[in-house]
Specification:
The complex is a heterodimer of chains A (679) and B (404).
Chain A: H1 2-7, H2 12-38, H3 40-48, E1 49-57, E2 64-65, E3 71-83, H4 89-118, H5 124-128, H6 134-159, H7 168-177, E4 183-186, H8 191-200, E5 207-216, H9 224-227, E6 230-232, E7 246-247, E8 251-253, H10 256-260, H11 262-266, E9 270-277, E10 282-289, E11 295-299, H12 303-317, E12 323-329, E13 335-341, H13 355-366, H14 389-398, E14 407-411, E15 419-423, E16 426-429, E17 435-437, H15 439-444, H16 448-459, H17 461-470, H18 501-508, H19 518-530, E18 533-535, E19 540-545, E20 555-556, E21 562-565, H20 570-585, E22 603-612, E23 618-629, E24 636-643, H21 648-669, H22 673-678
Parallel strand pairs in A: 1-7, 2-11
Antiparallel strand pairs in A: 1-9, 2-3, 3-4, 3-5, 6-8, 9-10, 11-19, 12-13, 12-24, 14-15, 14-17, 15-16, 18-21, 19-20, 22-23, 23-24
Helix pairs in contact in A: 4-6, 6-7, 12-21, 14-16, 14-17, 16-18
Chain B: H1 14-35, H2 39-42, H3 50-70, H4 73-78, H5 80-94, E1 100-103, E2 106-111, E3 116-117, H6 119-135, H7 139-142, H8 145-163, H9 168-185, H10 189-212, H11 223-232, H12 247-260, H13 262-274, H14 285-288, H15 294-297, H16 302-334, H17 339-363, H18 381-399
Antiparallel strand pairs in B: 1-2, 2-3
Helix pairs in contact in B: 1-3, 1-16, 3-18, 5-6, 6-8, 6-9, 6-17, 6-18, 8-9, 9-17, 13-16, 16-17, 17-18
The chains are: A alpha+beta (679), B mainly alpha (404).
Chain lengths: 679, 404
Amino acid sequence: MLVFDELKKNEPHLRLVAVGLAVGLGILLLGLWWVQVVSSREYQAHLETQQFRTIRLPAVRGKILDREGRVLAENQPRYNVSLYLNDLHAPFDKAYGELLKSARAAQKQNIANAEKKLGRSLTKTERKQFAFKPEQLQTLRESARAVVAGNLVAQVGQKMSQPVTFDPVLFNRHYATRLALPFPVLKNLTPEQIARFEENYTNRLGVEVELQSVRSYPLGDTAAHLLGYLQHDDSSSEGEESFFNYRLPDFHGVVGVEYGFDDELRGRAGAESLQVNSQGYRQSENIWSQPEPGQNVVLTIDLDLQRAAEESIVKHHGADARAAVVVMDVRNGDVLAMASTPTINPLFFTGGLTPTEMQQEAARRADKKLRPEINRATQENYAPGSIFKVIIGLAALEAGLNPEKFYTVEPDPTRPGKGCVYIGRRKIDDTAPPGEYNFKRALERSSNSYFIQVGSQVAGADRIVALAEKFHLGENFDLPTRQETSGNLPSSERIHSGWSAGDTANICIGQGEVEVTPLQMAVVYSTIANGGTVFWPRLVSRIEPQDPTSRDAATNLPSMLVRDRIGVSGRSLRILHNAMLAETEDVEGTGKAAVVGPELRICGKTGTAQVTDEHNHVVDLTTWFASFAPYEKPHYAVVVMVESGTSGGGSCAPIAHDIYQTILDKEKAGGGKILAAAN
Amino acid sequence: MFPQNTTPRESFDRLQIAALVGLMFIGTAFVFSATMVSDEAAALPWYDQSWVRQIIWYALGFGVAAALCVVDYHTLARWSFVAYWAMIICLVAVLIPHIGSMRYGARRWIDLKFFQFQPSEFAKVAFVLAGANFLSRPPDELRQSHVFWQGIGLMMLPFVLILKEPDLGSALVLLPTGLVMMLVAGTPRRYLVKLIVGVGLLASVFVADLLFAPDGWRIPMEQYQRNRLLIYFGRDYTHFAPPHATPAELQRLRQRQLDDAYNVRQALISVGSGGLIGKGWRQGTQNALGYLPRAVAHNDFIFSVIAEEEGFVGSVIVIALYGVVLFTGLRIAGSARDRLGKLVAVGVVTLIFSHVFINIGMNIRIMPVTGVPLPLLSYGGSSVLCSLIAVGLMQNIHIHRRGY
């Protein structure tokens, strides 16, 4: 034989080569015999279940809680009825077989008809025209699946006694791309529906209730801006496995605390691998990395104050009021309430609303005036108006103003009973009547003339701006919410180039080049209240594990972070406090509407700033009430801002009243610590 | 008077040709089976379908081989260095962007529009011819060390260039081919021992570096090549994880290893699930369902399609056909008129054998995955043409054999 002839060759080199070839081919044969004959079973089994599909499992998102652990944002189970396609493999095949049978019969019939017509049997090429094309078979398969699934869906509808829509195109797309995942039929079931389903539908193949976790805000719009909202986003976070065959729905925070603490809230997605067989159906599953649940974020917000603020705005100005309230703990900078209206329903972005609700929300979103998306407490610049006068007053007092000295306010020739002041040839109106004003009377009557005079003559623009800079007006807080503007403050360079006396006069009454946010003013009033320490505002007090039994420790965010000290004497502050107290308690005071009683005496300042258009015409008013309490031992600062209000005392002080009333009630219920201090 | 032998001696080695025809028949049938599973391929006009093209290449190759048989191989050998250097130029050219076209991360082809010309295939044949020509000098000369080193140089030049493409498999087949030709030519044993020890040492250093070297000491190599070799040596990717890797990271590395080992695993499953008698022509599910990647099923992994559909029986037939081609080749070498003929035949035999061993070996995981075609079965113009040119050379030697 050929091989042995070569092996027996007497040429040693060629014999060696022949041996080499024989051994090599022998090794291959042996290997093939081993793989194909000995272990062939094993590989055939492999064929059945050999494919993996990986699924990204989003972690349970952390809750957002108020300072006392009350829930502001949490997760709710959402129940869907879904088709589990793995179990439907056999019915699909069966339906396809039947469809194919009838298609074959039709094909035969067509051929027979054609033969009859021609009077002879068809040739091979003619028969070919009747053969099935691959697309036809594919269509048959798809319609078979659609029929089976459609019947099941109809059955579900019948059992649940409610109509269910079924879209065959959607279904076949799901089949093509996400075969190993359940196909949702009915979404968002109520508990009653689930009960009905479980009760009525016992013998069900391939239909199951499936659980999903969705974000919910149990208090609706409460603190909606601060909480922010989520958007659908399944993409992998930094440092996470980036390749998945399927991703279950997951969400990312877009603004607010949901955005600022997204990493903490989101946790770490897990991964599951599904084994599917050679047809792509699910065989078994294995979670190889468990999702790590996100952490809870505990806010500094006090839910009672937050709701009091929001409800009070609505009570006094209606649901579409454009207003903001900030309540701050003056002792440490904790934000106790931060309200902004109008709001957007946070479920608008995660698809938890009905279509009509969605339309309404969309219309509100598009409204140029309402602009419900912005957080008015931090995200919009406003002229502070008269509430800025406390800074002018402090600057003047520090510059040596004698608070008892009287300044004369001249009568306005065009408006009887009102005063005015002249800066050069320009006349500035005063809302206060003409007459003699000392510091206290000027503050409580909010005399523009007085503050323009002392601001320009005693303090001067340099001192005013220097003091305002100590308060860090015109600067960001770097809030974690992505909802911030810095306001405006002329720099010390600005006031030495092209700066006029009129510009200084404007600043003295909180107009012109100075703009603030309500949160900034809350910091200013807190600082005045606490004796001069500028704290960084704090929104989140700690981050703690979702599972209370977890051994992971909670992380406390630093409290009482000092940003600056204004370096103003206690005497000046005392004079200011007394004048502000008179604002709410004196007969002539403009902030009397805020008063809640002798147990909680309030130091306040009203303000009404003019909003002008490009022609310098007044088009709107921004009204303010900024305050702190108690007078004796300040604890709370409350700043209220209402757009298009009538006056600070009329539009804003009543809201502050409601908030202080809540504080008082709370303190009374909690043992009355403040009251003790007050007495 | 003894009658003169007047029968024409230009007769082919019929047994070898029969085996070749058998292989080409199988090649056509399974290129058909491997490509016609996808609807897009089936929808192509007939003249664009792979199996038709394969037949055209067979015919072309046969024509070229027959033409080669007309000229005495001595005449061909005289041109062998021209062919060799032409191929070296092509191998250099293919490395230059814009001339060599990039596919699957390697620069191996020169695009001639109607034909993707793969110089490394032709270089192998040119090397066999030039090497045989070089080594066919009297054995005394081969004892001189500078001749030995020249021979090594002749082999290493295309080796390095092909390695650079990168095409590890094609480069590697040059080594046994050159070595066996040197052995048969009568190069003194001490040289060969030195050579084998040297190559062995280099190879073990390479493997040791691959498996154990710390970061910074590793031989520069494309990541996919490293991965293929790691898979072959059964090395865990986790071995290369940073020291403080978390369990999740290790798990990810394992998953990636699984992904990278995909082709090998799928090929093995194909071969293994074929069993003794196979699933029948065009009944293989591995290929039909796309588990065997469509891009390679009809060329580098054609054997796993054959093995799945025809089983162990089919594998034995394929190996038997190669056995016939190889051993008739050796017979031709033995009966060759001179050392040149013998060396060419031995070179071709070793070349074909190396391809077969590496390609089938990688299907059953006894060799790492390298892009080496299976001669005459894998789809591809360059490979088919070169295989047929190579056997044409053998037939040429047979026609002009001893006693002619």
